[in-house]
Amino acid sequence: MGGMACLLRLLAIVGLALADRQFDSRPTLRPMNPASPPKITLHLIPASHPCRAAVEAVKAKQLEFESVILTPGEHADLVEGIYGEGCRTVPGMLVDGEPVHTTSAINRRLEQIAPEPSFYPAPIADAVAAAEAWGDSELQPLGRILPWGAMYFRPDCFATYGGGEALDPAGTDYAIRWIRAAWKYNGVSAVAIATALESLPALLDHADGFVAAGLIGGATPTAADLQILSTLRLLMTLGDLTELIEVHDCGAAARRLLPGYDGSIPPGAFPAGWVRAD
Ligand SMILES: N[C@@H](CCC(=O)N[C@@H](CS)C(=O)NCC(=O)O)C(=O)O
To answer: In the chain, which end has fewer C-beta atoms inside a 10 angstrom radius, N or C?
Structure first.
């Protein structure tokens, strides 16, 4: 596929094809929980780690769902129109038309609809909820800074986050405009990138503590798994960070839960010395 075609694919102009590939809506098993499942619709954008978390959450509950892939940049107004004032982020979930907004709210609503397998197992429910909240507030923002940060140095890799290939020069020019806009929108700067990279080793150690405590990395995903491991797996698409993350128990858990993840930026994108292992 040519570079520009790959790019257009990322921008969700062929959103449904992308939805099939990136956010596979088929449950792993036949729906069995509950007896008459509600109609679930997810509003998503391509390559978003919270969106991937929501998709995996619905699949873990073995529920059928429909994906609506929105165009990044245009999605915020649309999402606010559906989910209410101030609700401008994805993912959002409609359950028989009832709006449920943010990954944490989605996890909790799914738990009511289909209690098994539990995202908040009884003996560790509070600790899982606290780990989930930590993942949301402390780790998730890195998934909006570092991939966009690395893409500035390798804009030809932009379309890989939509399942495409490296861009040709014309596609790369187009991608550069999107990357600039994303920097502005997400508050990315060289200082923000360096700060995020500096914070990563301690965050990985913290997440390893959750593995040791049995809050993440087990046989069935908890709400904390979905929240934390989706971000780590996205960050592992950055060649500069793959090894750094996967030597950690939490990194190995991320690869187990999410073996495939679109996007690839070869090592060497970030300036030498910015990536720290400790
Ligand atoms: N923490 C929330 C927020 C998710 C979030 O920030 N999503 C990003 C995409 S990765 C988004 O929609 N950003 C658009 C905006 O901030 O306007 C969640 O987990 O649902």
So the answer is: C
